[in-house]
Design brief:
heterodimer, A: 325 residues, alpha+beta, Immunoglobulin-like, Cytochrome Bc1 Complex, Chain D, domain 2, 37% helix, B: 549 residues, Cytochrome C Oxidase, Chain A, 17 helices, 66% helix, 0% strand, disordered N terminus
């Protein structure tokens, strides 16, 4: 809407136009308030300048006025809060069926792996009109995934996942910045987000060739590390069954209930005994230091796929059990 | 009522001529002399920090990183931030003007603990020397925020010496705050009730509470960073089982209130100036006093608004966003009450008043843009961009530094015993105002366009606004150099100042300029309200006073 205005950033996501509208509202309200205060100041400064034969009139103050001019602006400001909170809530709630891109940030580059297995460095290709969820972690320090044209930003932390999502609306090439200071080449940790028509995107996806989906990579890792020995699809294993785990509540040994999100799965692989499922013992070996972030991502993607609409994933998990045995 | 008494600098004893040797300054327990030690040291650090700022702006004149290397640039913005925040902004008003004026304003001979006051300066200067050593030994590039695990595990620079420099400066700040709290409670003259305290004193009281309660947290946190760096304890580093966000919580628990340490004393100054040059009592004295205390208390409850995109939960983000809006309540009271104070006043436009106008305007913009950042959906986009840089500088430079300069002009006759050249003062105030806005306003636009902060090189579409900003910075530098020059000049050539050149309210104007070491010959007894301008009448027409040579 404002893209032709000078000094206005590209707007290329569904969030962008919402943030722009909010920004305009904030600018307008602030401009009105600033104008009011400045005008009053100037008028008072001129009108009540020192004049011969006139002296200042002493005024005590007025609680009524004070309450008025603090509470009235405050209620206006609360509209900022509500509007901002609504947009934030959307930004932090990725749609369930979003396409997933796993991201590993490191000094000073961005590594992306699409769920389909396509890998990229410092470039991220996405189609228009599809929700894309970024599942991000860092290999070293804190970075931040910032695409101004999408108006989204999320710090990327070592040792855990953070997520962000967007739905691109306009084909084009947009800046990707690291916005959290991360050392010497911080300003070089930049890249491009290339938004394509779905058809072009399909064509681009096809050019990679020979990529296997992350779930498949995860599946072979699952077998390679012997996970299936205990995490059987029936309830007889020494570890809890992973079928249908993702996004569902898990009752823990200490009585807490947590939702099994990406971070839960990641932590359970790496940290023995961090969150033990009720009825099981913390006997799993730790995989801390044995898996690269990319391998971990693939495993997480695979575990998430287990018991999803069923049919394809579950039989293969069962298949793995037999293979492992 | 105080009247302008001709002064004879040659004969009258004052704190300035109470002794001349190094020892008489370095071992002094006089709060006024300690204030002068602070004045010299913070001015020194202001210029060091300012030189770094100019180098940053010069680098950003062109999109490519061509003036300095990336590592050098990172060190420049790190040390600019650390020096300006910890060695200039935090001590500037409390340790200089507060130190000098609070005892006189409440009718005391000195602060409650003169030796601790001197000790605080030694802590400060030791910390400062460690920072200078850090710079000379190659600098530090953590960013002033020391985010982990970057600062603990990855950088090879002098992180530990910088931390202990800041640690020492922190203790100086704690001691100053402690001294003020006890002094304001215990040393007020008979009749100087809490309801008669100048708002400058109230502002410092609120500031001191934050200094005493908040600073120990950042001190401990920075020590933990140093220990983690040296011993790899695993407090903040996730690869050792630590939590990097814990650092951010601890750091901002102090560092958000710290911005109120920096701005509240400035608000105190503006209250004094606006009343004096409007010839009016303050509009709503009680509300103004409650507002500074309210800001100090609420300031402790909003720290995580620095962390909306850091990975905290949606719900804690919502709570911290909402709480941040509550700070707007007392801030709005302050701005509107200053404005209302001018209503039906008899306003003159001396240099301090020009700075006060500047403060109210720039603080308004700084405050309102703060609401953008407290707004969750908005903050996600502009967080860690130049929008934040601009907002922060509107409050810290447009607010705090402008107030500090206003205060320095207002009380310079009292401090030095000389008048500064008024025309030059007005010119410098105008230059500061123009230079400041040209430097920092374009940065709001840059921020919304998406230019991240702490970037050594940037995409070419951001260049025009960066050129404007750099041009503004050079103008601003001139605005800062001018007062330096004419203040020094006035110490020798300025006309001697009477006790009360502005015919202003307040005990500090009833003692000679410059004050004698003991401040008061007799114990003053206060029988009047603060800002009793009804009794004082008009500003003297002509500031020239007969001089006895």
């Amino acid at each position: 809407m404002f893209s032709r205005m000078p000094f206005w950033p590209d707007a290329a996501s569904t969030t962008a136009s919402q943030v722009d509208a909010l920004y305009l509202f904030l600018v307008m309200v602030s401009a009105i308030m600033t104008a009011l205060i400045f005008t009053t100041l100037v008028v008072f400064a001129v009108r009540f300048r020192k004049q011969r034969g006139q002296s200042a009139e002493q005024i005590e103050g007025s609680h009524t006025l004070e309450i008025t001019w603090s509470v009235l602006p405050f209620t206006v400001f609360l509209s900022f809060f509500v509007w901002g909170a609504v947009i934030f809530f959307q930004e932090r709630t990725p749609p369930q069926d979003a396409t997933e891109v796993y991201t590993v940030a490191k000094q000073w580059m961005w590594k992306f792996e699409h769920a389909e297995g396509q890998r990229e460095i410092n470039e991220l290709h996405v189609p228009t009109g599809r929700d894309v969820k970024m599942i991000m972690t860092s290999q070293d320090v804190i970075h931040s995934f910032y695409v101004p044209a999408f108006r989204i930003k999320q710090d990327v932390l070592p040792g855990r996942y953070t997520t962000a999502w967007f739905r691109a609306t306009k084909p084009g090439t947009y800046h990707l910045f690291c916005s959290q200071y991360c050392g010497t080449q911080h300003s070089g940790m930049i890249g491009w987000v290339i938004v394509m028509d779905p058809r072009d995107y399909q064509a681009w996806m096809a050019t990679g060739g020979g990529n296997q989906p992350m779930t498949a990579t995860g599946q072979s890792l699952f077998a390679q590390f012997g996970c299936a020995t205990c995490h059987r699809s029936d309830t007889q294993g020494r570890g809890p069954s992973l079928a249908g785990l993702y996004n569902n509540p898990v009752l823990l040994e200490d009585g807490r209930t947590v939702v099994a999100d990406e971070n839960y799965i990641r932590e359970s692989i790496l940290q023995l005994g961090a969150k033990v499922v009720k009825g099981f013992k913390p006997i799993m070996p730790t995989f801390q230091g044995q898996l690269s972030d990319e391998q971990l991502n693939a495993l997480v993607a695979y575990v998430k796929s287990l018991g999803q609409p069923a049919a394809e994933a579950q039989p293969s998990a069962a298949g793995m059990v037999t293979a492992a045995q | 009522m105080a009247t302008a008494v001709p002064v004879n600098l040659g004969e009258r004893e004052s704190y300035l001529n109470a002794g001349y040797g190094f020892k008489s300054w370095l071992l002094t327990r006089d709060h006024k002399r300690i204030a002068m030690l602070y004045l010299l040291s913070i001015t020194f650090f202001f210029f060091i920090g300012g030189i770094f700022a100019l180098l940053i702006r010069l680098e950003l004149l062109t999109p490519s990183g061509d003036l300095v290397q990336a590592d050098t640039y990172n060190k420049l913005f790190t040390m600019h931030g650390q020096i300006m925040v910890f060695f200039f902004l935090i001590p500037a008003v409390p340790a200089v003007l507060g130190n000098f004026l609070i005892p006189i304003m409440i009718g005391a001979r000195d602060l409650a603990f003169p030796r601790i006051n001197l000790l605080s300066w030694y802590f400060y200067i030791s910390g400062g020397l460690l920072m200078i050593y850090t710079i000379l030994a190659g600098g530090v590039d953590t960013g002033w925020t020391f985010y982990t695990p970057l600062s603990t595990e990855f950088l090879k620079t002098n992180v530990v010496t910088a931390i202990f420099g800041i640690f020492l400066a922190g203790f100086s700040s704690i001691l100053t705050g402690l001294n003020f709290i006890v002094t304001i409670h215990r040393m007020r003259a008979p009749g100087m009730t809490w309801n008669r305290l100048p708002l400058f004193v109230w502002a410092h009281y609120a500031t001191s509470i934050i200094q005493v309660l908040g600073t120990p947290v950042v001190a401990i946190t920075l020590v933990l960073v140093a220990l983690e760096r040296l011993l790899h304890l695993g407090i903040f580093d996730p690869s050792l089982g630590g939590d990097p966000l814990l650092f951010q919580h601890l750091f901002w628990f102090y560092s958000h209130p710290a911005v109120y340490i920096m701005i509240l004393p400035g608000m105190g100054i503006v209250s004094e100036i606006v009343c004096c040059f409007s010839r009016k009592r303050i509009f709503g004295y009680q509300a103004m006093a409650v507002a500074v205390l309210g800001i100090a208390v609420l300031g402790f409850l909003v720290w995580a608004h620095h962390m909306f995109v850091a990975g905290i939960s949606v719900y804690s983000a919502l709570i911290f966003s909402l709480l941040s809006y509550f700070v707007a309540l007392p801030s709005a009271v302050k701005v509107f009450n200053w404005t209302a104070t001018m209503y039906k006043g008899s306003i003159t436009y001396q240099t301090p008043m020009l700075y006060a106008f500047g403060f109210i305007g720039l603080f308004t913009i700084g405050g309102l843009t703060g609401l953008f950042l407290a707004c969750l959906g908005m903050d996600v986009h502009v967080h860690d961009t130049y929008f934040v840089v601009a907002h922060f500088h509107y409050v810290m430079v447009g607010g705090m530094v402008v107030a500090y300069l206003g205060g320095m002009h207002f009380w310079w006759p009292k401090i030095s015993g000389r008048m500064y050249p008024e025309a030059w003062g007005k010119l410098a105030a105008l230059i500061v105002f123009i230079g400041f806005n040209l430097t920092f306003f374009p940065q709001f636009i840059l921020g919304y366009m998406g230019m991240p902060r702490r970037y050594h090189a940037y995409p070419p579409e951001f260049q025009i606004l960066n050129v404007l900003s750099t041009a503004g910075a050079t103008i601003l530098a001139v605005g800062y150099l001018l007062p330096m020059v004419y203040f020094v000049w006035s110490m020798r050539y300025g006309p001697p100042a009477p006790a009360n050149p502005w015919n202003a309210a307040g005990l500090e104007w009833q003692v000679p300029s410059p004050p004698p070491t003991a401040n008061f010959e007799e114990q003053p007894v206060v029988t009047w309200e603060a800002y009793n301008y009804a009794e004082l009448g008009e500003l003297p027409e002509n500031q020239e006073v007969p001089v006895v040579r």
